Amino acid sequence: MNGSKTCLTALTDTTPTVVLVHGAFVDASSWNGVIAELKAAGLDVVAPPNLLRGVGVDAAYLTGFVEALGRPAVLVGHSYAGAVISQTGSDARNVAGLVYVAAYAPEADETLAAINARYPAVSLAAALRTFTYTDERGEQATDTFVDATHPADVAAVIVRAVKAIR
Predict the structure, then answer these.
(1) Which pTM was predicted?
(2) Which residues, 6 or more positions from 64, have their beta carbon under 8 angstroms from its beta carbon?
(3) Residue 76: closest CA among 40, 10, 33, 84
(4) DSSP conformation class of 144
(5) DSSP string, 8-41
(6) Given CA atoms 99, 104, 107, 108 in this order, what sign does their dihedral have?
(7) Which domains, and CATH codes, for the chain?
(8) Phi, psi of 100 (to 5 degrees)
(9) Each residue's pLDDT tens digit, 62-86
(10) Sign of the dihedral defined by the CA atoms of residues 114, 116, 119, 121, in that order
């Protein structure tokens, strides 16, 4: 907002709610500074949790959340959340716009794996570890985490690049 403070004093039922969606390896608190700025400008803003269970699951959750707002919404996604808001933007009836902040912006039917394959030199990939487990339904599932065996090295990698969990 570059230091200028503009206040929108007349929120209406058609004024969009700004929905901030965090990417991988963080939580909604990563938006705290942005939330303060947007609220100071008089905007309605929320930052729901991103489950980080895969684009399909995360988009379904976000779609339900956005539709429950009962008013137009502008979705803002960072990193991995770009893929999530892309899907929710197609699925939720009340999405007024999408904003990508250093985020994935996949084409229709494009996977994150396909996008990542185009950029093999991204060094965060070397720190990612995937494991398989049995979920609550007894089905095989996978999860990914950042291996912090060498914290300084991992921190340096994360500063340079953020990749999606799946």
Answers:
(1) 0.76
(2) none
(3) 84
(4) E
(5) -----TTSPEEEEE--TT--GGGGHHHHHHHHHT
(6) negative
(7) 17-160 (3.40.50.1820)
(8) -105, 120
(9) 999 999 999 999 999 999 999 999 9
(10) negative
